Amino acid sequence: MANPTLQKMNDTYKKEFMLSEDEVHVSYLHPYPVTPATTIIESKNEKVKCIFKLPIDEYKQLLFRAKRTAELLCKNIPVNRCALVTKPVKCGPSQIKIIPLHGVNSEWEQAISPEPEYNEEYPGYCNSKNGPRVSEESLTNIQDKVRSKLETTSISYEFFGDADDKNLFSRIVRGEEKQWRVWEDSEHVAFLTPFPNSPEFTVVIPRKHLSSDIFSLEEKDYEKLIEAAYKVSTLLKSSLSIDFTCMIFEGFEIDYAHAKLIPVITKNDYSEKSNINLPTEFHPKYIGYVTSLDGPLVPKEEMQKVFQQLKRK
Fold it and tell me: Which end of the chain is more exposed for a tag (fewer CB within 10 A), N or C?
């Protein structure tokens, strides 16, 4: 939020609609939600504009607060699932948005935005829409660039699960699908998607088939996935000469736990790019994608109703 007036208003709402606070974070209802009850988890580290530049311990504390907040939203709104979106900020400390997915059933059903999007350069926001398929040559070039920074280039197709699991991501882990793998460890794999909405869009998955509802994962599985995302973001930064990475948890194209990492590609210094005139979006229900864009200002009386719901024991 680069507009100082909006930032001041945001600070006022932060105090009035605060949900939790400790030495690392403050969480509060977002006054400009893209969907009702969107909540912000904000770092108290004023020097850091992107969560992936936080020390790993602070990063993990912030991500675990995101998990707790999603659990609160699911219980008290109520909704069946929540998404996560985070992008670098230009004014104020780094933030995570927790977006309730209104209208989503308890049983997983595939949902994909019908409108593809592609931005060669970072437009000031990120979203989970697919883009047009890019050439294999382009993917291979990016893959080679990223893998050149790896300490070891060995590949393992070990999968911790049923060898007959037909899920696309299970097959990718086992090496049964064409892929552009850029990183792996003993428990996770990262690869380039051939349908990116911006260059070098990367997906991080575990080697076992876990629920796509990341916030419902067991604590240890969740911790390992967010650690893997942190490592991959660091690799993308060093190999692609970028400063920032966006991240999304959503999970309605493939029912398998995955984190989406979107490198921030800019020709100029990110801090010099203006995003004051970004479009706004508002969706009462989930429409097949999530976005970091803000919505219109919500009247205080409406926010108060939601706030009271969330403060219920």
Answer: C
Q: Looking at residue 50, which CATH number applies to its domain?
A: 3.30.428.10
The total number of residues shown for the chain amounts to 313
List pLDDT tens digits, range 63-98. Answer: 999 999 999 999 999 999 999 999 999 888 999 999
136 is written with which tokens? 């294999």
Are 160 and 280 contacting, i.e. CB atoms less than 8 angstroms apart?
A: no
Q: Which of 104, 89, 140 is nearest to 212 (CA)?
A: 104
Report the distance separating Cα 265 and Cα 267, nearest Å: 7
Contact by Cβ (8 Å): 93, 26: no
Q: What tokens were used for 11?
A: 């600070």
**pLDDT attached to residue 33:** 97
- The pTM assigned to this predicted structure is 0.95
Sorted by sequence, the CB contacts under 8 Å of residue 141 that are 6+ apart come out as none
pLDDT in tens, 228-261: 999 999 999 999 999 999 999 999 999 999 999 9
Average pLDDT of the chain is 94
Structural domain boundaries enclosing 274: 4-311
Q: Is the peptide bond before 31 cis (omega within 30 degrees of 0)?
A: no
Query: Among candidates 51, 16, 45, which has minimal Cα distance to 31?
Result: 16
Measured in degrees and rounded to the nearest 5, phi and psi for residue 13 equal: -65, -35
115 backbone dihedrals φ, ψ, rounded to 5°: -105, 110
Q: Please give the tally of structural domains in the chain.
A: 1
Rounded to whole angstroms, what are the CA distances from 75 to 28, 81, 252? 17, 10, 20
Predicted confidence (pLDDT) at residue 276 exceeds the cutoff of 50: yes
Alpha carbon separation from 188 to 140, 210, 242, 252 (Å, rounded): 20, 12, 23, 20
